[in-house]
Amino acid sequence: MRRYSVMVALLVAFAAGLWAQVRVTAAAGEDIGTKINAAIGSLPNGCGEVDIPAGVYSLACRINVPRCVNLLGQGEGGTNLTWTGGAGLRLRAGMRTAS
After folding, report:
1. Which residues contact 28 (CB under 8 A, 6 or more apart)?
2. Domain range spanning residue 27?
3. For a 10 Å CB count at each end of the chain, is N or C smaller?
4. Average model confidence (pLDDT) for the chain?
5. What is the mean pLDDT of residues 32-58?
6. Which has the higher per-residue pLDDT, 91 or 46?
7. Edge-to-edge, what's the strand order for the sheet holding 69-72?
């Protein structure tokens, strides 16, 4: 039942223009972390989807992903993020932190 209510809430948010999609633009090999954070920051109402194009990108900074934001790659082997920021990958998603 909870899954259904979340889907309905997302559908209502999308229909009301509260859910948006932003596409990150970057050259292959470029550090994409700051661009992903900027795309998240540009979402209206702070919620929506950030579409990362196919390619191999370096990632040197922390990405902060709010609970109402989805990061979309182009499938397995399509979008590859290579951590170059030192000891341990840091990704903050909602209240959870993965290292």
Report:
1. 55, 56, 57
2. 20-98
3. N
4. 76
5. 90
6. 46
7. 20-23, 48-51, 69-72
Report how far apart, in Å, the C-alpha atoms of 44 and of each of 9, 41, 49, 54, 73 are. Answer: 16, 8, 11, 24, 20
Residues 69, 48 contacting (CB under 8 angstroms): yes
In the structure, what pLDDT confidence band is assigned to residue 8 with cuts at 50, 70 and 90?
low
- Confirm if 53 and 25 have CB atoms less than 8 A apart: yes
**In contact, 56 and 84? CB cutoff 8 Å:** no
Tokens 């194009």 locate to 53
Query: Is position 62 within any domain?
Result: yes
Q: Which two tokens stand for residue 78?
A: 């399509």
Is 15 part of any domain? Answer: no
